[in-house]
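Tokens as discussed.
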């Protein structure tokens, strides 16, 4: 297998693939040689990313999916198997949008429930249907998207933080359950990444965030995607149950 295309011959699902980290990951998997099945609720954006991958010579299939709906997730995996006959990798990246900073007691039950349904239950449902398919394919690798907010709490975003902490727990449990069966399960914990939220925040806000990081810059979706490719490749074949920060040193401690 080429080191330049370390996922050649593999079939991978990427959820939340219509924009930002998910789109960058789907494209990176395509460039790494994988056949990519892209899943998200936004059909038009999903189709655009899929077309970009195929135009670059990759193989890709768009499957509109709501990860909070068990039937929708099951259909995603079934369509993947129907089209390509196997499943070797998955990046479970779909997430509900963060709510505005809100003290916990003022957070609406509806907002909290939405975060749980997508960020946490969606990861559970994805793995529930992906893992049997990988076992039938002889093994595989899963990457779940947590956050630095899943390793270190952030005031005002109780729904997001609690679900991202939960993703770490789900990841470790699944890693232990299936380590002996050839399925590796890891998580990524991105720090501040240049996604839609930071684009909308404005240049001054971005500079403030960057100044607080040891590396003095915001990360890119492509840097997170590169870590996901590595975790799904043979280069990380002895790695499972890990949550890897991609955070410019944010969790290492206080910057000078």
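Sequence:
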């Amino acid at each position: 297998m080429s080191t330049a295309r370390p996922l050649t011959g593999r079939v991978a699902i990427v959820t939340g693939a219509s924009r930002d980290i998910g789109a960058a990951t789907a494209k990176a998997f395509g460039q790494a040689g994988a056949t990519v099945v892209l899943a998200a609720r936004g059909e038009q954006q999903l189709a655009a990313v899929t077309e970009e991958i195929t135009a670059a010579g990759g193989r890709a299939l768009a499957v509109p999916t709501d990860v909070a709906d068990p039937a929708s997730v099951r259909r995603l995996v079934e369509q993947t198997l129907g089209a390509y006959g196997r499943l070797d990798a998955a990046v479970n990246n779909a997430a509900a949008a963060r709510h505005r900073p809100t003290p916990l007691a003022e957070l609406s039950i509806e907002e909290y429930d939405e975060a749980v349904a997508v960020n946490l239950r969606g990861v559970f449902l994805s793995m529930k249907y992906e893992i049997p398919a990988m076992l039938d394919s002889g093994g595989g690798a899963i990457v779940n998207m947590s956050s630095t907010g899943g390793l270190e709490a952030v005031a005002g975003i109780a729904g997001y933080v609690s679900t991202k902490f939960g993703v770490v727990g789900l990841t470790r449990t699944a890693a232990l359950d299936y380590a002996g069966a050839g399925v590796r399960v890891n998580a990524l914990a991105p720090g501040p990444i240049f996604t839609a939220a930071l684009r909308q925040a404005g240049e001054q806000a971005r500079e403030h965030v960057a100044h607080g990081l040891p590396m003095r810059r915001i990360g890119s979706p492509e840097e997170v995607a590169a870590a996901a490719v590595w975790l799904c490749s043979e280069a990380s074949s002895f790695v499972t149950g890990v949550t890897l920060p991609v955070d410019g040193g944010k969790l290492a401690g206080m910057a000078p």
